[in-house]
Design a protein that fits this description.
about 50 residues
Length: about 50
Amino acid sequence: MRGLLVGSLDNVLCPLRVGKDTKMHKLMIFFDILGGTMMFGILGVFIGGG
């Protein structure tokens, strides 16, 4: 249960962190992370999410 919560929070907070550095739109970063997670499954959460 904790892993699901942490993963969900990371998917929300990561675009906010990355967006400031790259000057990309938050929604674009969110869909990029979401797509990587969908392509690589649970492994994509660790590889693509960080």
